[in-house]
Specification:
CATH topology: Rossmann fold
Structural class: alpha/beta
Number of helices: 8
Number of strands: 7
Largest sheet: 7 strands, parallel
Number of domains: 1
Order of helices and strands: EHEHEHEHEHEHHHE
Strand order of the largest sheet: 3-2-1-4-5-6-7
Helix content: 40-55%
Shape: globular
CATH superfamily: NAD(P)-binding Rossmann-like Domain
Bound molecules: NADPH dihydro-nicotinamide-adenine-dinucleotide phosphate
Distance between the termini: 42 Å
Length: about 260
């Protein structure tokens, strides 16, 4: 008999940036485990394509347009998800962006764009979902950090700051909301082949080979490498796991 620990039947996942890359990889994993999914992103074509793909897995899925840099838009996203599905069991704060420059070259507006999109949005969305999860007796919040939550890089001052901050945000929310049966954890992806890193490989000389050389698994990660961790962190198998950070990196962070 299959374990109930990884069965998400009857649960609802809300994934920001769920229309592509790592977010869609996690949404697919949760859908394959039986969860209904709300895909949240700015691009309506990508949203629609992701919804079709998820419905083809046999689950209910829908999409909502959100700009996570806008607090009112995040609050509306949560309200629409609750209206559409009646509950929200797992919020994945995945939407993110990067601007790669040397630290001295950023404008304040660029710094704020990265911090607002990657860090403030996770706080705002988590705050908005809290009363829903509390009222239904619990829930799961998954943050997406990065190797830049651990390491710095010459081209990533605002990005690293946002991804370091998100780990601390998760610990604080986890500490406060454990009493409400809400678990908050962070996934730390390694270098993953997505639209975000296609740009990184164009902008940072030698990055592709450096990642291959440094990663014990000997390859870049794929969005689908995040399906399993999503199922674990969204399901009852992780009910006593909270405030922690889990690398999904092919060994990148444990190897010099
Ligand atoms: P993608 O560029 O493929 O995905 C980014 C997603 O974020 C898109 O779905 C995009 O949706 C959404 N998004 C961006 N800005 C906003 C916004 N303002 N409002 C709503 N949605 C937004 O990149 P990844 O899949 O690689 O990145 C996903 C997450 O993983 C990010 O947090 C990133 O920092 C993190 N990460 C990625 C790594 C990698 O190697 N790829 C490594 C470590 C962390 P839309 O197109 O509709 O705007």
């Amino acid at each position: 008999m299959a374990s109930k620990l990884f069965d998400l039947t009857g649960r609802v996942g809300l994934v920001t940036g769920g229309n592509g890359g790592i977010g869609l990889g996690m949404a697919r994993g949760m859908a394959e485990a039986g969860a209904a999914i709300m895909v949240a992103g700015r691009n309506t074509e990508k949203n629609a394509a992701a919804v079709s793909e998820l419905r083809a897995l046999g689950v209910d899925a829908d999409s909502v347009v959100v700009d996570v840099a806008d607090a009112a838009s995040c609050e509306a996203m949560v309200a629409k998800t609750k209206d559409r599905f009646g509950r929200i069991d797992c919020l994945v704060n995945n939407a993110g962006t990067a601007i790669r420059k040397q630290p001295q070259d950023y404008s304040l507006a660029e710094w704020q764009e990265v911090l607002t999109t990657n860090l403030t949005s996770a706080f705002v969305c988590s705050q908005a979902v809290y009363p829903v999860m509390k009222a239904q007796g619990g829930g799961k919040i998954v943050m997406i950090g990065s190797m830049m939550s651990i390491f710095g890089a010459s081209f990533s001052a605002p990005y690293s700051s946002s991804k370091g901050g998100i780990v601390q945000l998760a610990k604080s929310l986890a500490s406060s909301w454990a009493k409400d049966n809400i678990q908050v954890n962070t996934v730390l992806p390694g270098w993953i082949d997505t639209a975000l890193t296609i740009k990184a490989r164009e902008q940072v000389d030698g990055l592709h080979q450096r990642v291959l050389d440094r990663t014990p698994a000997g390859r870049w990660g794929k969005p689908e490498d995040h399906a399993g961790i999503a199922v674990f962190l969204a399901g009852s198998g992780s009910d006593f796991v909270t405030g922690t950070s889990i690398p999904v990196d092919g060994g990148f962070s444990v190897h010099i």
